[in-house]
Design a protein that fits this description.
The protein folds into two domains: 5-143 and 317-332, Rossmann fold (3-Layer(aba) Sandwich); 144-312, Dihydrodipicolinate Reductase, domain 2, CATH 3.30.360. Helices cover 29% and strands 21% of the residues. It has helices at 15-24, 46-49, 60-63, 84-96, 119-122, 144-153, 183-186, 197-209, 247-260, 276-279, 315-332, and strands at residues 5-10, 30-37, 68-69, 77-80, 100-103, 137-140, 162-170, 219-223, 233-241, 265-267, 287-294, 304-311. The longest helix has 18 residues, at 315-332.
Length: 333
């Protein structure tokens, strides 16, 4: 049997790091070899230090690992779940040492030398790596809500040129980290603001759906909301094309995409789906699409379609995204 590839995990104790650990458990290609975290955690056993909040149990093998300093990792391949301010310094330092860093942090997503990837959508953006001068490399995955917007928009490009995308997000508690938003603020409530989130979604979507060198030029209007859901970001999208497009055509494209890539798109036709509680599972990498409908044709122009996109923010939106990018990068060599 082929030996598995060792992977180091940075920011191992947070929600994204915890999800990386569960996704690497029994992974066919990768094995968790090192866990690294902030200085306050160094030297402790992972199982004794972590406040485990994942939907599945902590793997015993990870629980026995000793947490090491961020710059002490030896594995060539690194998954980073660090906060952006720490990633800004640590990730380039590791890349200079020859490590391949797949980052969930926002620090380098918009850097013109760094690919921002959804492997099923824009793997050709790996060409940007040739601009990086380090002996190693940095690759990034998008903001969690961006994945569910850009990933759902991508197949629809075959129907015509986009004019404008209007999007409203309903984002789960786990996207805020732990302890996140106070229950006093969110229970029975909705918060229509998440700092920096709207710009991330707007700019990252254009970068992903453009060429490696030039972002897409269609307009994007975003409103974001934090809602009392544990896992699962829902995105409501109204997509205006420059030419007439029907909801039936959009449904057909989504269904064809699901047929070709069942681990990427899941189409729902029931009027009340998709739903986070009913349709997501703890290792779900699919983007769930439903409520596909025609925009108001009362002006005689059928150029707008609407739909709902949902995904697990810690899996396809974060930890699973980084792992899939590492897998795709290695396959490209």
């Amino acid at each position: 049997m082929e030996k598995k590839i060792a992977v180091a995990l940075l920011g191992a104790t947070g929600p994204v790091g915890q999800k990386v650990i569960t996704l690497l458990e029994n992974h066919p290609r990768f094995v968790l070899a090192e866990v690294a975290a902030s200085e306050g955690s160094v030297g402790q056993l992972y199982g004794e230090r972590v406040q485990w909040k994942n939907e599945v149990d902590l793997p015993a093998s990870a629980a026995r690992m000793k947490i090491i300093p961020l710059m002490s990792v030896q594995s060539k391949y690194v998954i980073s779940a660090l906060p952006a301010d720490i990633a800004q310094d640590v990730e380039p330092a590791l890349a200079k040492r020859g490590h391949i860093v797949c980052s969930n942090a926002s620090a380098f997503r918009m850097d013109h030398q760094t690919p921002l990837l959804i492997p099923e959508v824009n793997l050709d953006h790996l060409s940007l790596l040739s601009k990086q001068s380090w002996s190693g490399k940095i690759l990034t995955n998008p903001n969690c809500s961006t994945v569910f917007l850009a990933g759902a928009l991508a197949p629809l490009r075959v129907l015509g040129e986009f004019d404008h995308v209007s999007v409203v997000t309903m984002q789960a508690l786990s996207g805020a980290g732990y302890p996140g938003v106070s229950a006093f603020d969110l229970l029975g409530n909705l918060i229509p603001h998440i700092g920096g989130e709207e710009d991330k979604i707007r700019l990252e979507t254009k970068k992903i759906l453009g060429t490696a060198e030039v972002p897409a030029t269609f307009g994007v209007t975003v409103h974001v909301h934090r809602v009392p859901v544990v896992h699962g970001h829902t995105v409501a999208v109204h997509l205006k094309f420059k030419t007439p497009v029907s909801a039936e055509d959009a449904l057909r494209v989504f269904q064809e995409t699901e047929s070709k890539f069942p681990d990427f798109i899941k189409v729902h036709t029931a009027q009340d789906r998709p739903q986070p509680l009913r349709d997501l599972h703890p290792h779900d990498m699919r983007i769930h699409v439903g409520r596909i409908k025609q925009g108001d044709p009362s002006n005689g122009v059928k150029d707008t379609v609407g739909f709902i996109s949902l995904g697990h923010n810690l899996v396809r939106g974060a930890a699973g995204a980084a792992i899939s990018i590492l897998d795709a990068y290695l396959a490209s060599l």
